[in-house]
Amino acid sequence: MIEQFAKSVDIGLSKPEKTLPSKYFYDKNGDALFVEIMNMPEYYLTRCEMEIFSTQTAALIESFQADKNTYFELIELGAGDGTKTSKLLEALSTEGYQFDYLPVDISKNSLDQLQTSLEQSLPDVSVIPKHGDYFEMLGSIKDSHHPKVVLFLGSNIGNMTDAVASDFLYQLGANLSKGDKLLLGTDLIKSADIVLPAYNDKKGITSEFNINLLHRMNAELGASFDPDEFVHAPEYCIDEGIAKSYLLSARKQSVEIEATGKTYHFKEGEKIHTEISRKYNDDILSKILAKTDFEITQKFTDQNNYFADYLLSRN
Ligand code: AVJ
C-alpha cells in the first residue's frame, strides 16, 4: 500500500506539470475533513442529493424494479458515511425487500463507522462491508449471481477523467448482468459563482483537505513538505465543466521524500494538480456511456436542478 502510494507520488511529481492522485486525500484526517466539507454552506452537492433521496425515495426504489420476493444485492461504491443511503435502506427494509447492503470504500475507518452506526439505527439491515478501491472490487462483484443495484453517489465519479469514467463503467457493466441497475450521482454543470465556492469555502476546510495530502506524505512517506508554504488554489471553467484543485508553491523550494529517495523542486507559483471534480449534463454522460452496456433510463434532480441521480440499466 505504502509502496503504491510512493510510486504514484513519484510519478506525479516527476511530470512537467506536477500532479498528485486525489484518492490519497482519504486518511483518517482527510475523512473527517470531507465530512466537514459536506456541512459547509457552500458545498451544495450533499444537500441537493439528500433532497433527492428524502423527497423521491419511493420513486428511486420503484426505478430499481426489484421484486419483493427476490433477494438482491445493494452495492454502494465509495459509501463514505452513508447518510443518504440510510434513507433508502430504511424504506427498503420497512417495505419488506430482501437484500444485503454491501458498502465498498477505500477508507477502512469510514467503513467501520458506517457499520457501527447502521447496526444501531437499522438493526434489521444486513451489512457486509468491503474494503478496497473501486477497480479492485469489480472482480468480487461477479462472484455472486444475484440481481444487483449499484449505487455510485455523491459525484464520486467526478474525480475520474472522462476516459477513466468510461473505462470504469464499461468494466462495471461487464461484471453485472442484464437488468442490473446503477444509480449514478452527478453534479450538474452550472455557473462558476455556484461551483467555485463549493471548492473554496470561507472557513478554509477545503483548503485544509487539500493540504492534508502534504501532511499525509510527510507522515507516511517521510516527506519534508512545509504545509504552510503551499496554497490551496481551485479553478473552474463552465465551458469545460470541471472544477480543478491545485496546491500552489508559495516560493521556490525543494522537498525530499524518503520513500522515493528523491528530491523534488518547486518554482515559486508552480502548481501541483491534486483533483478534478467533473460536472455533468445528459450529453457528457451519454458520450461516456457510449461504449458501455449501460443506458440512461431515468433522471432524478433536486428542485434547483444542481444535481442529478441517473438511473442506468445494464442492457
Ligand atoms: C467526494 C469526489 C465528490 O469532488 O466534490 C470535495 C471531493 N474535493 N471538496 C468532490 C471534494 C474537494 C468530492 N467528491
TrEMBL record:
Organism of this sequence: Psychrosphaera algicola
Domain Histidine-specific methyltransferase SAM-dependent: from-to ranges: 6-313
Protein's name in the database: L-histidine N(Alpha)-methyltransferase
Alphabetized UniProt keyword annotations: Methyltransferase, Transferase
One Pfam family in the UniProt entry: Methyltransf_33
